[in-house]
């Protein structure tokens, strides 16, 4: 059996497309006629951003930000079995453009402990944007370490390690069209 055959589908590509369309409509409505900047968190949010942006009928530009956790990186097994980062997040790639006075939609694949989005949102807010709203495809509220609420949530999921549609396990499976659960070992 190949690794990919051990995965169980949690959310199908069809369900994702339907939900992403609804999220796009909500953003279009909320920002009614204004310009927005999609800011994607590399690399997991790339696929979600590409699909979400095409469901938003507003003038929009894209930018991307890269972050990583300080210190030791988890081994793939630790990541799968609920590794917790130290809470120190650092910027590895900054935005290309100024966001002063702009409407930002911060796009993330999954909101887990909340450490990453807390760090990024705080940093973006310090640059005097007009507004920052957070769109996350997935939310695992049971794992939160810092209180964080996204403005647009695709699906709330249980405490499972998931891959596909941009999400990885040791950089693999990002290209799966469905969101799948990796069995714990
Ligand atoms: P947070 O800082 O704990 O909220 O973590 C967010 C980051 O952890 C995401 O951008 C993912 O890279 C990673 N992550 C958390 N849960 C999962 C998962 O179930 N599958 C893949 N990556 C995950
Ligand atoms: Mg990851």
Terminal CA distance reads: 16 Å
SSE-based structural type: alpha/beta
**Lateral arrangement of strands in the main beta sheet:** 4-3-2-5-6-7
Separate helix tally: 4
Helical content (DSSP H or I, runs of 4+): 10-25%
Mean pLDDT: 93
Biggest beta sheet attributes: 6 strands, mixed
Summarize the helices and strands and which ones pair or pack.
Elements: E1 8-11, H1 13-30, E2 36-41, H2 46-53, E3 60-69, H3 76-80, E4 89-93, E5 103-111, H4 115-125, E6 131-139, E7 152-156, E8 162-163, E9 179-181
Parallel strand pairs: 2-3, 2-5, 5-6, 6-7
Antiparallel strand pairs: 1-9, 3-4, 8-9
Helix pairs in contact: 1-2
Bound molecules: inosinic acid and magnesium ion (MG).
Structural write-up:
This protein is of the alpha/beta class. 23% of the residues lie in helices and 29% in strands. The protein is built from four helices and nine strands. The strands form two sheets. Strands 4-3-2-5-6-7 form a six-stranded mixed sheet. Strands 1-9-8 form a three-stranded antiparallel sheet. Strand 2, helix 2 and strand 3 form a beta-alpha-beta unit. The longest helix has 18 residues. It is globular. 29% of the residues are buried. It binds inosinic acid and magnesium ion (MG).
């Amino acid at each position: 059996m190949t690794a990919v055959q051990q995965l169980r589908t949690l959310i199908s590509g069809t369900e994702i497309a339907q939900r992403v369309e609804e999220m796009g409509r909500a953003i279009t409505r909320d920002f009614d006629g204004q310009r927005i900047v999609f800011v994607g968190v590399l690399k997991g949010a790339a696929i979600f951003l590409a699909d979400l942006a095409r469901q938003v009928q507003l003038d929009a530009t894209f930018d991307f930000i890269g972050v990583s956790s300080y210190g030791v990186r988890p081994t793939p097994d630790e990541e799968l079995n609920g590794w917790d980062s130290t809470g120190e997040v650092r910027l590895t790639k900054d935005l290309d453009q100024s966001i002063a006075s702009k409407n930002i939609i911060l796009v993330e694949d999954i909101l887990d402990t909340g450490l990453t989005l807390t760090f990024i949102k705080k940093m973006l807010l310090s640059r005097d944007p007009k507004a920052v709203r957070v769109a996350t495809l997935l939310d695992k509220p049971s794992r939160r370490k810092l209180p964080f609420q996204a403005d647009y949530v695709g699906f709330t999921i249980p405490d499972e390690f998931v891959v596909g549609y941009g999400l990885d396990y040791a950089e693999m499976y990002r290209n799966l069209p469905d969101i799948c659960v990796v069995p714990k070992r």
